[in-house]
Amino acid sequence: YQFENGWQLGFGPNLNYARVRTDMMTLSGAQTSGDNEWDDSFGAGFQFAVYKKWDKLSFGSAFTSRQWFSTFDKYTDVVNHPLDMPNILQTGFAYELSDSVVMTIDWQFLQWSDVEASNKDVHEGGFGWEDHNIYKMGFIWQATEKLSLRTGYSYGETPIQEDAIFVNAHAPIIIEHYASLGASYQVNDNWEFNLGYIHGFENTETDEGILGAAGTEVTAEVDIVNFGVSYVF
Predict the structure, then answer these.
(1) Which own/partner pairs from 52-56 qualify as long-range (CB within 8 Å, at least 24 positions apart)?
(2) What average pLDDT does range 198-214 have in this prediction?
(3) Which of 69, 143, 199, 225 has the fewest CB atoms lying closer than 10 Å?
(4) Rounded distance, CA 97 to CA 101, Å?
(5) In terms of pTM, does the model score above 0.85?
(6) What pLDDT was estimated at residue 137?
């Protein structure tokens, strides 16, 4: 909804689906009873955002609520709480450096302390995560009337505490540096194609806990390719 003073407000529901499988050890030292079989979980939440553009400067802020998921029933010996996603707040600015180049700066906050499964100490069946701050910077170049190119970089210190690295081996969110490239091509007034590539640089963390897993190293690196088609009614 766009107000007369130029501010815009958006709202929408989220429906989620997740699946997981693992053969990792439990805290008791036995292999999980899930036996590396797929298990499913469904969730829901909502999000809203505000936006305002002045001459060359734009401001935007978005809030995504906690995404409430059902429990992975086959893996209750690994985690006995639903793997909810946290409240997420992202806010930032965009500035037009020229008629064709825009610079963006964003801050994102993930409130893992509000989610029981992630916030609880590993001795209590949790994952030992802390709240997560991520800082982002990007550039958008309108190369032609129909083609726009994007590049970006982000940094966020891993939210996993040093004594919980082993417990998080099946979900190693330890990558701290990301770089991305993207492009959009507007075919006509209705159709647009989008392509994006993200690289998460390799990072290694060492468990310093007291659960018999001290010294365990976990390494993660990721490459993500996104392709999308948009239709404007």
Answers:
(1) 52/6, 52/7, 52/8, 53/6, 54/6, 56/95, 56/96
(2) 83
(3) 225
(4) 6
(5) no
(6) 98
Q: Reduced to 3 states, what is the DSSP secondary structure of residue 11?
A: strand
Q: How many CB atoms lie within 10 A of CB 54?
A: 8
CA distance 121 to 155: 25
Which helix (H) or strand (E) segment is 8 a member of? Answer: strand 8-20
**Position 149 pLDDT exceeds 90:** yes
Instruction: Give the residue, 138 or 31, on which the prediction is more confident.
Output: 138
Give backbone dihedrals phi and psi of 24, rounded to 5 degrees, phi first: -70, 165
Residue 122 in 3-state DSSP? Answer: helix
188: left (phi > 0), else alpha (psi -120 to 50), else beta? beta
pLDDT reading at 80 higher than 80: no
Residue 199 contacts by C-beta under 8 Å, 6 or more apart in sequence? 178, 179, 180, 222, 223, 224
Q: 3-class SS at 40? A: strand
Query: Which residues face 89 on adjacent strands?
Result: 63, 109
Task: Confirm if 105 and 88 have CB atoms less than 8 A apart.
Answer: no
pLDDT class of 210 with cuts at 50, 70, 90: low
Residue 170 has pLDDT above 70, yes or no: no
**pLDDT band of 94, cuts 50, 70, 90:** very high
Q: Please write the tens of the pLDDT for every residue from 128-148.
A: 889 999 999 999 999 999 999
Distance CA 136, CA 11 (A): 23
Contact predicate 212/204, CB 8 Å: no
Number of residues in the chain: 233
